[in-house]
Hints:
Strand order of the largest sheet of chain B: 10-11-12-1-13-21-14
Number of strands of chain B: 23
CATH class of chain C: Mainly Alpha
Largest sheet of chain C: none
Mean pLDDT of chain B: 89
Structural class of chain B: alpha+beta
Helix content of chain B: 25-40%
Helix content of chain C: over 70%
Radius of gyration of chain B: 26 Å
Low-confidence stretches of chain C: 1-10, 21-38
Number of domains of chain C: 1
Number of helices of chain B: 16
Distance between the termini of chain B: 60 Å
Largest sheet of chain B: 7 strands, mixed
Distance between the termini of chain C: 20 Å
Order of helices and strands of chain C: HHHHHHHHHHH
CATH superfamily of chain C: MetI-like
Structural class of chain C: mainly alpha
CATH architecture of chain C: Orthogonal Bundle
Strand content of chain C: under 5%
Oligomer: heterotrimer
Amino acid sequence: MARFIIRRLLQMVGVVFILSLLLFFWLRSLPGGTVSAILGERATPETRAALTKALGLDQPVWVQYAKFLGRALRGDFGASTKVLPGADALDIFFSRFPATIELSFFSLAIAVVLAIPLGYVSARRANGVLDSGLVIASLVGVAVPVFFLAFLLKYQLAVEHNVFPVSGRQDSLGCTRVTNFFVLDGLLTREFDCSVSALKHLVLPSIALATIPFAVIYRITRASVIEVLGEDYVRTAESKGLTARVIRGRHVLRNALLPVVTTIGLQTGGLLAGAVLTETVFNFGGIGSALADAFRNRDYAVLQVLILAAAVIYVVINLLVDIAYAVIDPRVRTR
Amino acid sequence: MTLKRTAPLVLLTVAALSMSACAQSDRDSGSDGGTSGGDVKDTFTFGAAGAPDVFDPLYATDGETFRITRQIHSGLLGIKPGTADIQPELAESWTPSEDGLSWSFKLRQGVKFSDGTAFDAKAVCYNLDRMYNQKGAGQTAAEYWTYFFGTFSDDPSGSLYKSCEAKDDATAVINVTRTTSSFPTILSLDSFSMQSPTALEKGDANNVQTAGEGFTYPEYSKNPVGIGPYKLSKYDEANKTVTLVANDAFYGEKPKSKTLVFKIIPDESTRRQELQAGSIDGYDLPNPVDWKGLEDSGNKVEVRPAFNILYLGLNPERNPKLKDLKVRQAIAYALNRDQMVKSQLPEGAKVASQFMPDTVSGYNTSLQPYPYDPEKAKSLLKEAGAEGMTLKFAFPTEVSRPYMPDPQKIHAAFTKDLEAVGIKVDSVSKPWNGGYLDDVSANGAYDMWLLGWTGDYNAADNFLGTFFSDIKGNDFHTSVMPWGKTLSEDLKKADAIVDEGQREAAYQDINKRIAEEYLPGIPVSHSPPALVTSGKVKGLTASPLTAEMFDTVTAGK
Amino acid sequence: MSPTNPMNRRKDRIDDLAATAGGTDTLVREAGTVDEKPGVSLIASAWKRLRRNPVFLLGAVITLLFVVLALFSPFIAPNDPAAAPLIDQVRQQTNPIPGPQPGFPLGGDNAGRDFLSRLLVGSQQTLIVGVFATVFGLAGGMSLGILAGAFGGWVDALVMRIVDVLLSIPSLLLAFSIAALASRPSQLTVIIAVAAVQVPIFARLLRGSMLAQRHSDHVLAARALGVSERAVVFRHMLPNSLGPLIVQSTLVLATSIIDAAALSFLGLGNPDDRRPEWGAMLGSAQQFIYDNPHLAVYPALCIIVVALGFTLMGESLREALDPKSRR
């Protein structure tokens, strides 16, 4: 087990190293760059040259990379140039990540709460009118461009009817920040109005982000319940004369939910990485909008950290899941 | 197994409990917005398009940052509300010596910084010397100083600034190395605001360092101490809001709204929705296509006088055919600028006859724009032997500027016009930050391109000088033209003239020559930008320099 | 079956799908035939069930209508979509969007072009974006997948590491960096950017399904008979992987169209808008969405319906090909 973990960790270091190399050279091959993003129309040949030199961008790329690597190994990923000028790029990741986790958590919650019961209902009446309708409806959610759905939600529920706020994470109530999970912070500091405000701001973006996981979880639940309903033990239970309620609860749902739970796990990774559009449209300050922001302004340091961090999270979660599986499933250990 | 399963939960609970023990609410419960009597709110909330960079204006470079620093800092000179003209601010008056190289400023008395320390002539000199003595990364970060004053103390040869003496508490004398129309006007720029020497000292304000490919700024940049109706209360990065509160130490009138909140909302249509939903009271640069809709739903669109220019740049170095004046004139005749202005720019936009707006001293009223005359264009092209020539014509994407709300549409309209007179157009586009500016300025990669300029202050040099003064590296590549050097020298000479009447005449003459003899590019239009507030907002004066002050503004409930 | 590694939604879905090729194999074995036309029975049985599946039929009808529209729209459209007959009415401030009028039932757009004609003809470029993005993604993914799946060993390890790295970058970010990398943005760069995101997915899919077959009986048999490695890969393994590839391609047709719209929305679409495309129309309508929502709503509806058509087809195909649901 220990050897397995060590090997995987070494592999991770390799992946991150390769990615950092690719990323570094790729970003610097992009047209434009930090210098013109900072100087704008005001650029003169002199200021341009001075800034390029000051930022070390006049050196060969491999020298720049060597310097970057040297600093990065000491935990210094450089300062942001535009997303939050002067701030440590790694700090930006840590301050923005809670927002994305919060958003992903709530949209997953919405998706799960709706998808599992509907998936179950669908499966019980497989290929009926209700089932077909639900299948199509879930896929409509996938077919709608996220930014368009976001606009519709905002227009109807925020602008026309003022039920929910248009954008942002919280009203400016002067809330105290502890963890940067705004809902949690409000509870911790007993500023409950802050939590309420943060929750209200979460509703619309969570719905917009929930459409795709909803469709996936719904589909898996449906397929899984259909499969379990055909299993021998369910038939046995039925023939034993157990009440429908017991069968449903103890036999069908419990067995059908295993793959569903796995799927929910899978969705988390996708959501954490993929909220660029939703966060941008709702001006929700997570890593998705930070990525878009950093990209638009060619903020190299922030881009590098965010993408590398995403890769590390991806690999680490992968590893954790593998370990968890090894613990649960003895067959894996023997391999 | 049970223990294993519950252990994380226990840990989490313990962590949460311990955190809640140290998590104290640190907000003032007394100053919640909107609780005072009367029918106006305590708080005015403005939708900003971008996040501020730093709060030390010396190191700031963009409009979004200056919009905020302007409320918390003042300069020796100020801007008369609603105009581009200077007026006294921290200096009550100023007089030059006879040779124009030494300026003495009479300072306003009884002024205090927001930390309670006194503002006097010593503070003025401390500030200017601080700017002049920037070292290392600080020099690069102090971009406005480089742009307007030239070099720093380690290379005095290129500096406009020479020295500063505090004659007495109320008199500061600033010495400059040459005469220029820009001085002392540039002292009205936000970057050269006066800040508290004590706080600068304490916050290690000059300690700018490079870190990777960016700069790190000292603690002071987050806690600025200046003179202004407001002071910085909090920049909540996580929630993208900047909160300013009234500065009790301010010498002038107390601000009408006690609290000023800037909500950072990069997306324009989201800003509009926020305004419509009532969560912000106003925002900057509404898209001209929205103006009517905004007004129809009860908002006020404040149109600023146009203080900008949109032009078509030409690069004769890349395309030698453009060296021929006839070809350049043919392009001017070929473009239906009237129609473009009417269909693509807001009302109040005008076709430009020269490279500066008419409010700037030196504007030549006798000049008329080249009329739309495709026949004339064709015959000029024929004379020049340039029929069927190809132009690589570029426009930027991912950007909207006050002078150019929708570059693609402007480009499309002009392309059509050029093709109509037989010029082949090779259309190129690049993202604004994704290579467009580099290609225009550093690489000279296009024959013709769209670009513009919004003035910093009211001086011809800020327009013409910016475009053509620097013979070596200007975007128009005038160095390959026989008149390029003359133009550059004449602009420098005109800028150095001390007498205002003579200077104005010199610039008028240059404008005439640029329009008729040189035509290094085609001036296209002046377009008024706007800002919008809800119908309940009172007291806002739109500024052509986009330098609005918010201390007079109130938002009704 | 070894436990799947549940991290990434895409990865898992891909592997799920890849496993259906393994299913083909079992079926072939059961039928006792090894060669000839592999997978016919699978396709036939799938078709039998698809014919009666209302979800599939709806998808097929939508897709068919869309393709017909794309082919014939230039003849149906009342006006030239690139001409600007209404430009004289366009006033940025007072009348940015000319309203409906005789000859122009949906009015114009902000450059004075006939909106209805653009909407109709837009189906063409939309189809082109969808099809080419899919084809490019498929081609790229297949090359990588074949490389990895056919050779295994260190080639496989290397290719899959690269694929994993690509999958770990948020797809939209990958697309818009590639779009931004282009020195001259155009329809082609949009297609390439959208296609690039699909490459690792196709690669993983194909590699998974080929790996599932490497030790299966029909491949072993072919090898034992002395069939060359090349022929084994192209004649035996690849055809058996086609099912999942077709399913994935159908789904990718939908996502490419939606992704292209997202690129436009983020300002990285095709800057030349003379030839209309729904995604670009939707993206550029954002600034008018408040006062003239129809400019966004119509192309959005078109995209939704077409993407739904492809998705319905893809999902029901997937279900039909899935051995688990074939009882």
